[in-house]
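Hey team,

Filing this mostly as a record. A colleague (T.K.) asked me to run one chain through the structure pipeline before their review meeting, and I want the input and output archived in the tracker in case anyone asks later how it was produced. No errors, nothing strange. Just documentation.

Input sequence:
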Amino acid sequence: AMKHLALLLALLAAAGCGAKAEAPGPVVMNDLELENWQIALVEMRIDKNEAFMDSTRSPLRPADIPGFEGLNYYQPEPALRFRTPLIKESRPDTVLMTKRRGQQVPYVRVGKVAFKAGGKTQTLSVFGPATPEEEAFLWLPFYDETSGKETYGGGRYLDLKLAPDGTVDLDFNFAYNPLCDYNQERYNCTLPPAENRLPLAVRAGETLFRPEGH
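Output structure:
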């Protein structure tokens, strides 16, 4: 019995320090949580469409604003939302990322997130500002199997917030297109690094702005 107790305590200790929960599967939501999540997603999309219709702040080309009816999205996909620890780098290093027009810009790799999708553990790097003067942010640029087909060829972005418990809400339903997708002349977006290429199709979040012109 003592042996069983020791084993049980060892398992509990492992679960407590996150060893077992480093790469969780999708967030499980009850009916109310699911409804609230869908409402938040729809509200975000409505707000963004309104901003894009406003000629004073729209990233669209002026010629595209009058006929603009809304951005294109996949249907909400609860299976592509994960709550996962931000595994911080013990010594964050500076990474140079390439912009669409070839310039390089520095970011700091602050950590990684892991989650289970497509039948195995997937890992992505999370980045932050390279200079202390910049306002702190957590940014996750990525490519997936839809990139250049159903979604923007230059990848998509996710903005993350660190919760007090050290986790992030990694919700691909909030994945959005770089501004280059709307106006290539005006914007010069940063491309995701090669390490952030997912070997699966992430059919959640924003899709191509001009699917027909592709």
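Quick notes for T.K.: DSSP finds two helices and seven strands in the chain. Residues 14-21 have pLDDT under 50 and may be disordered.
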